[in-house]
Amino acid sequence: MEKMFWRQGKLVWLLLLITSVISCRNTDTDEPDVPPVITAATPYYLKVPDGFPQPNLSRQNPLTVEGIDLGKRLYSDPILSSNGLSCSSCHMKSLSYSAPTFNAANGFRFSVPPHVNLAFKTYYNWTGSIEVLDTLCMGDFEAEFFNTNAADLYQRLNAHPEYPKMFRKAFGITNLNNLTYHELKIKICYAISQYMRTLVSADSKFDRYRAQKTSLTQEEYAGMLIFFSERGDCFHCHSDPLFSDNSFHNNGLSNVFNGFDKGRTLVTNSEKDLGKFLTPTLRNVARTAPYMHDGRYATLEQVVEFYNSGVKNSPYIDPIMNKRENISNLQLSDSEKKALVAFLKTLTDEEFVK
Amino acid sequence: MNSGIKTPLVLMAQLALLLVNQFFFYSCKNDKEETDFLSTGNVQLNITHEVDGKALIFDSLIYQNAAGNSYSVSRLQYYLSDAVLKTASGKTVFTKGFHYIDATRGDEKITLPNIPAGTYTSIQFLIGLDSLTNQSYSLPNTLDNINMSWPDVMGGGYHFLKLEGQYLNTNGAPKGYAMHLGTNAALIRHHPLNMLLTVEQNKTSRLTLVMNINAWYTQPYNYNFITDGNYTMGIPELMQLIRNNGKDVLETR
After folding, report:
1. Which of A27, A88, B3, B192 could make a disulfide contact with B122, Cβ separation 3.0–4.6 Å?
2. pTM (whole model) above 0.95
3. How far, rounded to the nearest angstrom, does the alpha carbon of residue B122 sit from its chain's CA centroid?
4. Domain A31-197: which topology?
5. Does A317 contact chain B (CB < 8 Å)?
6. Could you read off the pLDDT of B174-187 as tens digits, one per residue?
């Protein structure tokens, strides 16, 4: 009887193991054959807002309470850098975890993408140069960002009163010195990416309007109708509820493509991708100025005016952008343009950016 | 006394049982001839996209439609749903389910599971989603489905079709077109496609389904981007022209 109990018990565990392995979604990994990581850390279940797609969770870096705690702390701690910078230096909460612009070492000037709803994306950065969130911040240790000194990093983390314990709880690491520098950076990125997956924004005025918890003004409502109809034709790329289709488009910003303006071509080397950029989310867009990949527009009014009258034709432009007469002259009235801006401002999640 | 009343009742019951038995016997016998609902197999459809017999090349302004427009294709996404298979004698198998196709990802394979074993001579699809399914947020919230949503302020539901690209206008300059179908009135019930497909128990039968892009622009109407309009969303009369043309865009191989 006892033997049978143990046999059945083993069978149950075996079935549980098989089902857990089968049910793991391995959509966000560059190491598809790596077995799931087993730690003693506490599993964390990400709440998916209504209407959102399932998140891209990582098999090799599952969400845990301890991992997220570690990531949250590291995110805003200059301990990772030699220049006093931390992730939050360029990803400020009040700006929806973004910053105005950054001048990269290669000469490219770009608007800093916000860290919002990253768990639901499959491409990162303006050109989609990264497809794995777990390692998104690996480049930040380089000279142009943190300029991290490896020896200093080990020394500071080891000497810190909390971090050694937090790494042990999150990843079972008993001695940071046992990790190579590359391994240490990966674990740091794993923790930070876990935290970034929890930066979910879905409680804007528009969300609450849709949930019948609040109302829109007449101007905001008029803007919503423009946004979600062919009048403004915003929704095809900035599709609800992420307000991004997670895809690449040439929106007619330029008709000459040099440097960063080449866009997705910088990743694919394909001419047809010239001027294409990953559709940025419009969630909290009122907080993420300046706009476009290079931050050329300071205000939402300028952005709307660009779509109203400034789209440039080229062989690479998205068909949605040059399907109208006079290229993309939306011919919006002044009041319609104001209404559209008013609607865009309803996409701010005040709690998220507080 | 009671038996006198019982006897006709028993006889009626026996007669009824006999009739029911005969009904099942004959209907089973007929099914056995062409379809066997007790044993099932799968049908795998390999879906390819062509322009008049040649494989579709995206983003190339090399195609010409019946109206004489030169055009390219940069995006082709649609739903196929609710396949209906028929045998030579007209016995019908109705399936329920939708399949999202993104042609830019290359050939797509979709599977119709649990099709009764038998020999089928035609297959039919909806291009789009039936009215019960075509309601906002009714499909699983995948990125694909989300990006196919049709805004509530325009009627809600989903895009059935996104067919986009560039064409040359009267000045010879490239200009965008976007043939989008949505709303229940634009649902396409495609003509039945002839085939000879045998489905065997626990086996997968394969069929190739080809969409000819130029068929969207002819039969019954030669659609012209320049004179008819280069986008259809929110313009019911243009969606109807494309919808009517869309009834014969598929063929089997």
Report:
1. B192
2. no
3. 12
4. Cytochrome Bc1 Complex; Chain D, domain 2 (1.10.760)
5. yes
6. 999 999 999 999 99
